[in-house]
Every structure is written in C-alpha cells, then in structure tokens.
Write a structure and sequence with these properties.
With 495 residues, the protein is an alpha/beta fold. Helices cover 51% and strands 9% of the residues. The chain has 17 helices and eleven strands. The strands form three sheets. Strands 4-3-5-9-10-11 form a six-stranded mixed sheet, sandwiched between helices. It has a three-stranded antiparallel sheet with strand order 6-7-8. It has a two-stranded antiparallel sheet with strand order 1-2. The chain is elongated and about 100 Å long. The N and C termini lie far apart (80 Å).
Length: 495
C-alpha cells in the first residue's frame, strides 16, 4: 500500500489517541507496518510528545551529568535538530503524496520511541550511578545507548520503506547510510550533553596555603604520649583521592569509631585529601604521612603499643593514589610506606588498605609484628567508591559492621569477607577476594592487644598496673607470659 492511501482517523478522546500512539510506536519498534493503523498524528499529540521527549532527554542528561554541571544550550540544540529534520521529512512526504495526514506521522512515532528510549536510559543511568548494576555492564552502557538511538530511527525508516514497497537493495542502502550518519553524529556531539560540566582549574585559596602547615602541626601536637605499663592503641587514617567524598567520609567514620568505641581519642590522626577540606584538615602527602608516622612513633611505647593504620583511595599495583589538585603529589608506593614505618620505630602494626589491587601491598608490608588486611587480592578490584557512598564495600563491611560485632580482627575479617562476597555476588561484580596476613610474632601478641581494644570497660592505668588479687580481672597489657622474643624482636621482613 502507498502512502497516498494512508488514512488516519482520530478518536474522540485525547487519552485514547495518546494510548493509540504509544501502541503505534511499539509496533514501529518491532518493524511492523501495523503502526500506521494505530497512529493518531494530531497537532496536540505532536506537541505533547515533543514535550515528553524533551523532558525525558533532559532527565537523562541530568542523571548522567557530573557534579557541578550546568545547562548547555548547544546540547539542547544538538538534540532538537533530529525531531526538526523528521518533521520536515513528514512535510515533504505529505506534499509529494498529496496526503496531508502524513505531516505528523513520522515525527510523532519517532518522538514516542525517543521518549521511551530516554526513560529506559534514565532508569539504567540511575541504577548505574548508585552502583546497582553488575560491574561488567558499565562498559556496555555507551553501546546500549547508541543502539537505542539508532533503533528508533532505523525502525521508522524500515516501516516507511515497507509501506512503499521499496526494493530490498534500496532499503539496505538507506539503512546502512542512516547507521553511518547517526553514529558519526552521536560521536561528534558526545561532548555536548544538555547538562555539561564546565572545566574549572582547581585553585588553593591563600588562606589554605598558610593554614595547612598549622593544621598539620596542631594535629601532630594533639597526639598524646603512651601510658607506661599499658598497651595503648594509636590510629592513623589516610584518605588519598580528593575528587570523591567517599574516601574522606570513610576515614573520618573509622576514626570516630576508634576514638569513641575503642578509646583512641587523643592518640589518633587523619590526613585527608578532599576538594573541600583544605581549611579544615591536613592533606595527605608523603611528607605529612612520614611526619605523622614519626610523631606517633615518638609518642608510643614500641614494646607495648599498637598502631592501626588505614588507607582508603583508588589504587593500582603497588601504589595508592594521592591526588589533591592543584597540588601535584607523588603516589604512595608499598615499598616507600614500609620504609617510612620502619624509620618511625613503630613495631606493632595493624595495617588496613582499602583500594583496588591493595593485595599487592602485602609482600612489602608483611613483617613478624604486623597484621596486613587488604580490601582485595593483588590482581583484583574492590568496589563501592561511588560519589553517593559514605564508605566503600570493604570499609562498610569491616569497620562499620564486623568490628562492632566481633572481638578479634580475624573474626571481623572473616565476617567482612562474607559480607563483601555476598554484596558483590548480588551486584554481579567479580569477587575482590580480601586478604589478611598475620606475622608470626604478632600472631602470639595479637590476642592481648585485641583484649585491650575490644574491652568495653576500658580499665584505668591504676587498674592495669595495680594488684588484681581477688578481683578475677584480666590485666589489659601484654602479659608476662608473652615470649621474650616477642617483646624484644626486631621488625624484619618475613617475605
């Protein structure tokens, strides 16, 4: 049947025309000419679906936009070009066929398909931005979005070609040409979305330039000395990547947990890289990390006290990223961190590294007096570093959940590993395979250290050093039964 004989009869009610047009678009998307039997191409229907298509595309662009993005007029114009071209195509077809009912048929069908496509993309984008999609799917999303854009236009061309009974070779030429044109177009306007982030060169306020040395010195001066005769825990946290708040949030929450629940208040230090914390918290650089470790080493008793060091950032093989524009920083290498720890004189160490490929730190950091816990194996990624998260998957599972419910690091790690595995499995992510290695001497001493950390009664110094005869209380310090080799051991590498 030709386009000349096509007749469209509008229904009496606007809502019925609306529903019929949606059905028509669905038939079009499956390549069926039944779409022509359902379509009701009135001007009001065209105006409504034009607004719906525009609104759904604005929604998608807003969901896909990075923080700080603004409305981009060029992106809006780039989108509007296509419905205008299709409307002009409908006008040309109507004049050539002498059938004025064709004017709005192509554009109405295309706008409905575009609305449905944009809403589907918005849903996928929303799920992806919250980390609710399988990890493997993210690499396919750009391809999916391109296919949806191509599909709605190719389906429109296909049903018109079928209606006009054009030869198969003409159809192939038209479809191949459309694919090439649309693909090139999409790639060239990809950097012009409706909402676009305006590049801003990071700057440091003059106040921050002078405030940072004071912040670091104040933080170092606030670290209290160890109490003789007791095993004290010290805490140091490093948030390495400034451009996502999750790392700052994680370190601050873990420090709060240790200060409030585990009694490290006055013996804790946080070094934070974050775009918004230059005036409030000392930044994390190799220099500040080295100074922090040295200060803690000076204040603690090397034989009796323990440092819990946790690092949270993006990572790669043998490195933790230290990023805080516009300041140029060196990344934190595993070998450098080991040297800094050894130079500080800190003997007993519990080190938690939350980053991708953090298992690559194990070989360098392992020693007889060290516990090394990593969020992933050496060749695995870890997850949860999204802009909306407060903690990473491992940070949430280990610190926020498992440490609150267990009284040993081994039990907490086992519990956290199960939680992470379940969450990754649910999301379809490749297992990160968290790791834990305990040095030979630490394996003997750790239960006594854990007894101090997890004892909610927090005995006073007098309780620790005084007589406990008749009380049945346990002395919360390294017991006299710990082998002499433990208390006098040198920190050496067990690799």
């Amino acid at each position: 049947m030709s386009l000349t004989s096509l007749k469209t009869i509008s229904l009496q009610r606007f809502s019925l025309n609306f529903a019929a047009n949606i059905i028509a678009a669905l038939w079009m998307l499956v390549g069926s000419t039944r779409a022509f039997s359902w379509v009701k191409p009135t001007f009001l229907q065209f105006a409504l679906f034009a607004l719906l298509a525009l609104g759904s595309n604005v929604l998608f662009s807003w969901l896909a936009a990075e923080s700080g993005s603004v409305f981009n007029e060029q992106g809006l114009v780039s989108y509007l070009i296509w419905p205008v071209i299709i409307l002009l195509g409908g006008i040309i077809l109507a004049r050539r066929s002498g059938n004025q009912t064709l004017v709005f048929v192509p554009v109405v069908l295309w706008l409905i398909a575009d609305t449905l496509s944009a809403l589907l993309q918005s849903m996928v984008q929303f799920l992806g931005s919250h980390g609710w999609l399988p990890n493997w799917s993210y690499s396919f999303l750009p391809i999916l979005f391109l296919v949806l854009f191509l599909w709605q236009t190719l389906a429109l061309l296909w049903i018109f070609a079928r209606r006009q009974r054009t030869p198969w070779w003409e159809r192939i030429i038209v479809l191949v040409g459309a694919v090439a044109l649309l693909t090139i177009w999409q790639r060239n306007v990809a950097d012009q979305p409706i909402f676009k982030q305006i590049p801003v060169q990071p700057v440091i306020k003059e106040a921050a330039l002078y405030q940072q040395p004071r912040l670091l010195q104040q933080a170092l001066d606030s670290i209290d000395p160890s109490v003789s005769g007791a095993s004290d825990w010290y805490f140091m946290g490093v948030a390495g990547f400034s451009e996502q708040n999750v790392f700052r949030s994680e370190i601050n929450k873990v420090r709060e947990l240790f200060d409030v629940r585990f009694g490290t208040s006055g013996r804790s230090l946080s070094l934070i890289n974050n775009t918004y914390s230059w005036l409030d918290e000392p930044v994390a650089t190799k220099t500040s990390i080295l100074r922090g470790l040295k200060r803690i080493g000076q204040q603690m008793n090397a034989d009796e006290d323990v440092l819990l060091l946790t690092l949270s950032s993006h990572g790669d093989q043998d490195i933790i990223q230290l990023v805080n524009p516009p300041l140029e920083m060196d990344n934190l290498e595993a070998a450098w961190l080991r040297e800094a720890l050894d130079a500080s004189g800190i003997r007993w160490r519990v080190i938690v590294v939350s980053a991708c490929y953090s298992g690559s730190f194990i070989d360098e950091l392992t020693s007889p007096t060290t516990v090394v816990i990593t969020a992933s194996a050496a060749d695995k990624m870890s997850f949860g570093c999204t802009n909306t998260a407060e903690m990473t998957y491992f940070g949430q599972a280990f610190f926020a959940e498992s440490l609150r419910e267990n009284t040993s690091f081994a039990a907490a790690f086992k519990d956290a590993s199960l939680r992470v595995s379940e969450r990754e499995g649910f999301m379809g992510f490749e297992p990160s395979e968290p790791q834990m290695v305990i040095g030979s001497l630490m394996e003997t001493a750790l239960p006594a250290f854990e007894q101090v950390l997890f004892d909610k009664t927090r005995p006073t110094v007098a309780d620790i050093t005084g007589s406990n005869e008749g009380s049945g209380a346990t002395i919360n310090r390294l017991p006299d039964t710990v082998p002499e080799s433990v208390s006098n051991a040198a920190v050496t590498d067990e690799r």
